[in-house]
Amino acid sequence: MAKILNPDICVIGGGAAGLSVAAGAAAFGVPVVLVERGRMGGDCLNFGCVPSKALIAAAKHVQAIRAAGEFGIAAGEPVVDYERLQARVHAVIGAIAPHDSAERFESLGVKVIADTARFVDDRTVATGDHIIRARRFVIATGSSPAIPAIPGLAEAPYLTNETLFDLKRLPEHLVIVGAGPVGMEMAQAYRRIGARVTVVEAGKALSSGDPELAAIVLEAIRAEGTVLHEQTAILSVERQAGGVRLLCENAQGRFAVDGSDLLLAAGRVPNHASLDLGAAGIRHDAKGIAVGADLRTSNRRVYAIGDATGGLQFTHVASYHARLVPQQILFRMPAREDRDIVPRVTFTDPELAQVGLGEAEAREKFGRIDVVRWDFSANDRARTDGLDRGLIKITVGRRGRLIGAAIAGAGAGEMINGFAFAIANRLTLKHFRGYVAPYPTLSEIGKQASISYYAPVARNPLVRSVIGMLRYFG
Ligand SMILES: Cc1cc2nc3c(=O)[nH]c(=O)nc-3n(C[C@H](O)[C@H](O)[C@H](O)COP(=O)(O)OP(=O)(O)OC[C@H]3O[C@@H](n4cnc5c(N)ncnc54)[C@H](O)[C@@H]3O)c2cc1C
């Protein structure tokens, strides 16, 4: 007979979002049940951020060896031992896994159930052995790779992010469907470690950010040898000896792409099919579970967070959501998601990072804005380190208010932290101009850009005469 549990909070899904809620609530001594049907740690640890960034790190080493000649160091073409490289990727996952494990969460006071959860009515969830009637439920079931409707795809062998990191041999020619962040990160990494790579994209590559900055990244990736077909439809996929053949079509006509392996990176779909959301009156569609800015669903006992909501799909968004929900459940404090403070980073080389509104969105919303630009080539550290390919664009509103910042360049993912902090705290460019940045660092680029914003004012003759008078009398 099923055991009945009555916790304060039942969390469904043990990925970044669910684990953070469970840990946060348990820290306050609140009874929490966590249901996870697969691997604790979810996508980020097992099939997403962690393995992809470990692979990218390896690929960076390979590229550094190739580029050593520029620095006067003789090095031949690096030899990649793919098995050892993959072993390290899995060792990194293994090193982080205990932190997300059922054992650790049990030790924090969370009851962990390894099973699939589904709603049976508006206040009850069932698993194989348990009936859970919680005061509040938090759905954190994440997302899965989208499988596009391409004729022949179902019969052809393909990889997704869930199988890519288990591949035992380096693909001879990796064909990637989709040129979003995941597709382009993997394209560059696999090209660097020695695969031929072709990417096929129905629209524009890296289309979610600033096109001028995306162009800098795409140019670098193409220069390393990745073939990228944009605005290209895939008419069919077929299995053939030694791999797959894609029949493609674009404005130049029809052509075939033959690859040894096929990776699907064509977006994500929310995991909610198994939840029987209808039984609990929870509105949802193919894009995700519908939530308000407070992350509450159409059932007032139930919240949904992270990828399952179909919003911005990042681990730091999952963690951000996970902070807003317990605040409401435990302390009845109102909380609202603010997407303008969420940074987005694509970990290509150079990296692409953005927070707040981009140039086009800011113009649409505010009309008159200023865009401050600073090229990486004007930064000494970028020059010394051979990283001078990059650009920062800062969107500025009235009285120097920071509306957004976008960066294409080395270290963009680190540099965007300062701007995310500034935007979340409603700071202005004056704050960026006023602090002392260590020299020589790439982060100085943000400060250099901010100084340039105020420079035209200082060049104004009226301002100069006022400054002159102040100096004379001061
Ligand atoms: C290749 C790749 C690279 C990425 N890189 C980055 C990056 O560098 N930075 C970044 O911020 N983001 C990155 N992401 C995105 C990031 O991985 C996700 O945004 C994040 O994992 C979402 O967390 P989540 O908790 O919402 O969902 P998930 O991590 O997917 O966790 C959901 C969990 O719910 C479980 N579950 C589902 N249904 C049920 C059910 N009915 N009952 C019980 N359990 C259930 C699943 O098994 C899963 O473990 C990447 C994604 C991919 C695919």
UniProtKB/TrEMBL annotation:
PROSITE patterns xrefs: PYRIDINE_REDOX_1
Transmembrane segments: none
Pfam families (alphabetical): Pyr_redox_2 (PF07992), Pyr_redox_dim (PF02852)
Cofactor requirements of the protein: FAD
Alphabetical UniProt keywords: Disulfide bond, FAD, Flavoprotein, NADP, Oxidoreductase, Redox-active center
Pyridine nucleotide-disulphide oxidoreductase dimerisation domain sequence ranges: 342-448
Domain named FAD/NAD(P)-binding: residues: 8-322
Keyword flag ATP-binding: no
Top-level taxon in the UniProt lineage: Bacteria
InterPro entries listed in its UniProt record: FAD/NAD-bd_sf, FAD/NAD-binding_dom, FAD/NAD-linked_Rdtase_dimer_sf, Pyr_nuc-diS_OxRdtase, Pyr_nucl-diS_OxRdtase_dimer, Pyr_OxRdtase_I_AS
Family: Belongs to the class-I pyridine nucleotide-disulfide oxidoreductase family.
Protein name in the entry: FAD-dependent oxidoreductase
Provenance organism: Sinorhizobium psoraleae
